[in-house]
TrEMBL record, chain A:
SUPFAM superfamilies: GST C-terminal domain-like. Belongs to the metaxin family. It comes from Cyprinus carpio carpio. Keywords: Membrane, Mitochondrion, Mitochondrion outer membrane, Protein transport, Signal, Transport. CDD domains: GST_C_Metaxin1_3, GST_N_Metaxin1_like. Residues 351-372 have a biased composition (Basic and acidic residues). It comes from the Eukaryota. Its main location: mitochondrion. Residues 50-209 form the Mitochondrial outer membrane transport complex Sam37/metaxin N-terminal domain. GO terms for cellular component: SAM complex. Residues 241-304 form the Metaxin glutathione S-transferase domain. This is Metaxin. Residues 351-381 are annotated as: Disordered. It is found in: Mitochondrion outer membrane.
From TrEMBL, chain B:
GO terms for biological process: mitochondrion organization; protein transport. It is found in: Mitochondrion outer membrane. Residues 187-249 form the Metaxin glutathione S-transferase domain. Coiled coil: none annotated. Interacts with MTX1/metaxin-1. Associates with the mitochondrial contact site and cristae organizing system (MICOS) complex, composed of at least MICOS10/MIC10, CHCHD3/MIC19, CHCHD6/MIC25, APOOL/MIC27, IMMT/MIC60, APOO/MIC23/MIC26 and QIL1/MIC13. This complex was also known under the names MINOS or MitOS complex. The MICOS complex associates with mitochondrial outer membrane proteins SAMM50, MTX1 and MTX2 (together described as components of the mitochondrial outer membrane sorting assembly machinery (SAM) complex) and DNAJC11, mitochondrial inner membrane protein TMEM11 and with HSPA9. Residues 40-134 form the Thioredoxin-like fold domain. It comes from the Eukaryota. The lineage of its organism: Eukaryota, Metazoa, Chordata, Craniata, Vertebrata. It comes from Cyprinus carpio carpio. SUPFAM superfamilies: GST C-terminal domain-like. This is Metaxin-2. One of its GO terms (cellular component) is SAM complex.
Amino acid sequence: MYFNKNLLWVKVLSWRCALGCCCMHTNMAEPMELLCWGGDWDLPSVHSDSLIVLAYAKFSGAKLAVKSIDWTWRTITASVPQLHYEGSTVTEPAQILNFLRKQAEMKLYIQLYLLSATKSKMTPTCQKKIKTRITELEKGSPPCRFNADYELTAKQGADTMAYIALLEEKLRPALLHTFWVDAENYVNLTRPWFTSHSPFPLNFFVPGRQASLALSRILLTKAESPLLNITEVEGKIYSEAKECLNLLSHRLGNFHFFFGDTPTSLDAFVFGHIAPLIKAPLPSGQLQKHLNQLDNLCQFCNTILKNYFTDASAEKRMDCSLTAPHDPVDANLQKLTQLVNKESNLIEKMDDNLRSSPQHRHETKPSARASERNSPLLSKH
Amino acid sequence: MSLAAEAFVSQIAAAEPWPENATLYQPLKEDQILLSDSASSLAVQTFLRMCGLPVLVSCRANAEYMSPSGKVPFIQVGNQVVSELGPIVQFTKAKGHSLSDGLDDVQRAEMKAYMELVNNMLLTAELYIQWCDDYTATEISRPRYSSPYSWPLNHILAYQKQWEVRRKMNVIGWSGKSLEQVYEDVSQCCQALSQRLGTQPYFFNKQPTELDALVFGHLFTILTTQLTNDELAEKVKSYTNLLSFCHRIEHTYFKEQDRESQSGSSRHSKGSLP
């Protein structure tokens, strides 16, 4: 019974994987579509949240069809950024990142399972664990977790969450103030830009609405409630933002990215927040001046722009990304062997736990016998 | 307070030593105080105990209105009044008592980041559960918040506070979340804290810092406060190293208070850890 089930499962998976690969490669079926604000000032988008998602998509090699909402009615109706895939919609950068990660993880697990089934390097309990994980991912049950970047340790995942909270609390109010509340910047830069990128009757409403949202956010979260006066809060939010930038600079040090040599979701978040501040031609930017003094953060931003957002480097990277159209087996196999070593440690641990729990003890015996019959049969397929 | 006023106050603060009659003001413990205020107040008390500074706890019905920033708790030291943990930490630093001097820049950055994580997730989740969940708001928060006042003031104040909190939740994007999502966020936050703590006694190895005080304040209050259901406490209990962390701090810094509070524990607070 067990080997029949396994066989069927492998067939279904390989069919699904092939179809998935086909979709990814030829883009004939629905690719993932991202709605975001358009780009300017050397950036792919002027909106912080959209930049976060775009950066993470580049880091993880996910293929996104980017659709800008400029000059459409979506400037006032849509909450940007927004990801559309197979009828479902995801908003908020954190949720979108989680979704992309889940897709990548699912693909990885399916390929792992297929490899393990054909090459029979893993024990049946490992395979069972992979299978449960795939069904879990399909059902969408694992919730938003930042520490699911599989290259990060648990502590680094926790640090990611903490630094993102720091960014949101300390830096974002000052960014909102710089772009939307500071009179000089708003009148000379932000409002003209957004007005020129919105369709006819909306250009009167869009900037004003964003500005009032920004102001209310700053006042409600930072101002002391009996007073609610913006001038008193300004000093406080700018000093907190400068402190936050200093802290980020200390943490980054001389490294290229926050956790070693490969970029992760924290790098995407930091990039999304500081890139507009570095690149926008702000008339009055005390925070910008402060940021320009922090060389390593400017360097960080420029490195990401150069390596991930110019066309020449994008083609070079496609050859070694997971979703490469040509040479799927070799490139995948290389990356997978690296990850299998990491994963198998995890899976071995889970395996031990599983073996020690009483309810699974008699389940392992019949499947062990079944897998011995499995491999010669499967290798024919 | 503006920056110039803050600098002035800290200069004055540096001049005098810590007096014996420093007082901490919070809402009434038995009837009025809510989960989030209780957590913040406990965090400040823990911090001051860790610094070895004596402080008297005084419960007043109008503590929130006496506070310079509208938030409780606040401390009165000599001629100065300082509210909220952040400014209090700076104030005690100006007086020469600090827990985080031994940390280098990177560690200090981490500590601040984790404190923001607790404020961003745990405190906001507590506020959400108290005021945006209709059942809890009707059964617990509104009656407790307005208990010292007579009709019609109690209704007006309770609804005003609820409206304020809901506006804030709207602006930061939490109003669209369901209760399950909020519990899940709390769980993630606890997981991050648990992973950071690991097997160490405190977050930054041997010495407690303000981060330990803050985390203890929130977790202890969540574990010992009775809400409409126990789900929040269950989420925290599933992380054993956080539980032992709370026990450890409770035994180290709150031994005497523990003995006193066990004799007179209220309906709302369960007194000591299970």
